[in-house]
Write a structure and sequence with these properties.
Peptidase C51 domain-containing protein; 3 helices; six-stranded antiparallel β-barrel; 19% helix; alpha+beta; single chain
Length: 156
């Protein structure tokens, strides 16, 4: 009887020990918006794409990255709630390193390259490093710009 109980306990603990999410799923216990909020202190909530609109009149918005600012991605069919990433460092005029949660479902990634590929060099279209291919992803994602807790609001 004890052996049966031990086997049952081990099998149940194996079920809850780790979760695997489909690469196409952005729904899971780890989400980008709560992660960014906890790391930056920005008091914004809801879908990541709504952060741009919510920040108007409350936080600085810009089309230039600064360390600690949050890059806000627009909602698309591939990322229906949008996405937010925290800028760690600017590498060049068109490349930054970010920290973000759930770009790869269920993971927090740090020092991830993001490259501006927008025609106007204004960070409204970006490509993001995709670890499974060890390079920038093939898709470009539309973005609004950067939100930060201080500084002038120079974007509309």
């Amino acid at each position: 009887m004890k052996k049966l109980a031990l086997c049952l306990l081990l099998s149940l603990s194996a079920c809850g020990g780790s979760r695997e999410f489909s690469r196409a799923s952005f729904n899971g216990p780890l989400q980008c918006a709560p992660y960014a909020r906890s790391r930056t202190g920005l008091q914004l909530s809801g879908a990541a794409a709504s952060w741009w609109r919510q920040s108007a009149g409350h936080y600085a918005r810009s089309h230039s990255p600064t360390p600690g600012s949050v890059l806000v991605f627009r909602a698309t069919s591939r990322v229906p709630s949008g996405h937010v990433s925290i800028v760690r460092k600017q590498i060049s005029s068109r490349t930054i390193l970010v920290d973000h949660a759930n770009w790869e479902p269920g993971r927090i990634d740090r020092n991830v390259p993001v490259t501006d590929v927008s025609p106007g060099h204004d960070w409204t279209l970006v490509r993001v490093w995709w670890a499974p291919i060890h390079g920038l992803g093939r898709r470009a994602y539309p973005a609004y710009g950067f939100v930060s807790a201080s500084g002038p609001d120079d974007a509309s």
